[in-house]
């Protein structure tokens, strides 16, 4: 049984006339009659009673008509869903993001994507860069916002943002009177850092910045969340170096200052599996690209 035969049967059943059904289907009448006869032979029942004056459905034909309408409607719905899936309008996408980051591009991209593709099941997890890499390779997430540099040939990496480091310090700190602070002036200061073993690239970058200024930072506390670190700074326990976008968090007791000389950029990137053909994934990438500064 072919889908075309069902379409032919439906046309004849609705028109109750082979000639009109043939015109509607844009074919000649003889092929239409042959297709209906083949359909009846295949299913083993008579669907129409034919006379010289009229055509009418048999009881079997009336039952078959109801089922045919349902089948064709399901096929049409399947086609529409397949077309929408090919455009990335439906499906599921699991996104990881570097929990230590406060980049505007992440919440903005997620918000816009949800608005444009409301029928996509979007799931978001805060994960370290290392956790995201492992999750990507094990197919537990579809895409991640990671702290670069990364070098894994199995993953596509696209840099979307570069930011300098800035100084966050207690409002009572003597350096608050300065608009810019030299990195060398931070030698001997108590540093609060992200946990290195959590896979956050900021830890190594801060260490490198300090070493280029001629000292190793005196780390007195490590934490794995941005708000916890800022809380320690507000309490006067120490200072920290964070990506510039952290300034959007105007936390009481914390003052931000620009560093001199300008520090190497903290790099945020998208990462996804090179062999992932998902249209949902590609639609998400296009949304993120709208808000990148690269």
Helix content: 25-40%
Count of alpha/pi helices: 9
> What integer value in Å does the Rg equal?
32 Å
The CATH architecture of the largest domain can be given as 3-Layer(aba) Sandwich
Structural class: alpha/beta
Order of helices and strands: HHHEEHEHEHEEEEEHEHEEEH
N-to-C CA distance: 56 Å
Largest sheet: 5 strands, mixed
Q: What does the average pLDDT come to?
A: 88
CATH-assigned fold name of the largest domain: D-Maltodextrin-Binding Protein, domain 2
Total of domains? 3
CATH superfamily of the largest domain: Periplasmic binding protein-like II
Number of strands: 13
Q: How are the SSEs ordered, and which strands pair?
A:
Layout: H1 3-15, H2 18-25, H3 29-43, E1 48-50, E2 55-57, H4 59-86, E3 91-98, H5 105-116, E4 120-127, H6 129-137, E5 143-148, E6 155-163, E7 165-170, E8 180-182, E9 190-194, H7 201-212, E10 218-223, H8 226-234, E11 240-243, E12 254-260, E13 266-273, H9 279-289
Parallel strand pairs: 3-4, 3-5, 8-12, 9-10
Antiparallel strand pairs: 1-2, 5-13, 6-13, 7-11, 7-12
Helix pairs in contact: 1-2, 1-3, 1-4, 5-9
């Amino acid at each position: 049984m072919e889908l075309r035969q069902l379409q032919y049967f439906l046309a004849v059943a609705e028109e109750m006339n082979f000639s009109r059904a043939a015109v509607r289907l844009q074919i000649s009448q003889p092929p239409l009659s042959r297709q209906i006869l083949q359909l009846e032979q295949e299913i083993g029942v008579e669907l129409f009673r034919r006379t010289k004056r009229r055509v009418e459905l048999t009881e079997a034909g009336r039952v078959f008509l109801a089922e045919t309408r349902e089948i064709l409607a399901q096929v049409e719905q399947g086609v529409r869903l397949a077309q929408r899936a090919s455009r990335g309008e439906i499906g599921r996408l699991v996104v990881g993001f570097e929990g230590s980051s406060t980049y505007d591009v992440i919440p903005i991209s997620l918000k816009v994507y949800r608005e444009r593709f409301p029928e996509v099941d979007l799931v978001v997890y805060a994960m370290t860069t290392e956790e995201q890499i492992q999750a990507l390779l094990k197919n537990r997430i579809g895409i991640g916002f990671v702290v670069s540099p990364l070098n894994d040939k199995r993953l596509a990496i696209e840099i979307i943002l570069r930011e300098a480091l800035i100084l966050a310090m207690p409002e009572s700190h003597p350096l608050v009177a300065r608009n810019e602070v030299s990195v060398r002036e931070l030698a001997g200061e108590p540093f609060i850092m992200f946990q290195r073993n959590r896979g956050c690239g900021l830890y190594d970058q801060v260490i490198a910045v300090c070493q280029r200024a001629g000292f190793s930072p005196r780390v007195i506390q490590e934490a794995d969340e941005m708000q916890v670190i800022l809380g320690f700074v507000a309490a006067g326990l120490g200072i920290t170096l964070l990506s510039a976008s952290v300034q959007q968090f105007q936390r009481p007791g914390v003052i931000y200052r620009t560093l001199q000389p300008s520090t190497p950029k903290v790099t945020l990137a998208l990462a996804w599996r090179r062999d992932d053909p998902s249209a949902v994934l590609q639609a998400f990438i296009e949304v993120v690209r709208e808000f990148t500064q690269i």
